[in-house]
Design a protein that fits this description.
- By secondary structure, this protein is mostly helical.
- Helices cover about 50% and strands about 0% of the residues.
- It contains four helices and no strands.
Length: about 120
């Protein structure tokens, strides 16, 4: 679905797909009705075995984002060492990035970043 989003927004730039941005792994619940999953979760009081936890999902995100930041810092440092000073200029095309991921990933990251607790 994220690939479809890229096509719908008309992205013409080179793309790179990273498995760490995929939707939560629902394990044995993959492909089942959402209502069935939530009914079972509500009855059990917490998440179900085999379903990727928020902590696991955030670990994937943090690994991905850390790699992106490290890569960006290295590029900026290399540019400065070569005498290029783009500090006041806008980002070059290579430094612009559009991340497309799934709603569950976005909600989990947002809750983590602004310290919201999950809805009951």
């Amino acid at each position: 679905r994220a690939k479809d989003t890229l096509q719908q927004i008309g992205c013409k730039s080179p793309t790179k797909f990273d498995r760490r941005l995929r939707e939560r792994d629902y394990g044995p619940w993959t492909g089942k009705l959402w209502s069935e999953y939530h009914k079972t979760v509500n009855n059990s009081g917490n998440s179900l075995p085999g379903v990727e936890s928020d902590d696991q999902l955030l670990e994937r995100w943090c690994e991905f984002f850390s790699e992106i930041l490290t890569s960006h810092v290295k590029r900026r440092k290399k540019s400065k060492e070569c005498g290029e000073d783009n500090h006041n200029s806008s980002l070059s095309e290579e430094e612009n990035m559009l991340l497309v991921t799934h709603g569950g990933m976005i909600r989990t990251i947002t809750r983590h970043l602004i310290q919201f607790s999950p809805r009951p």
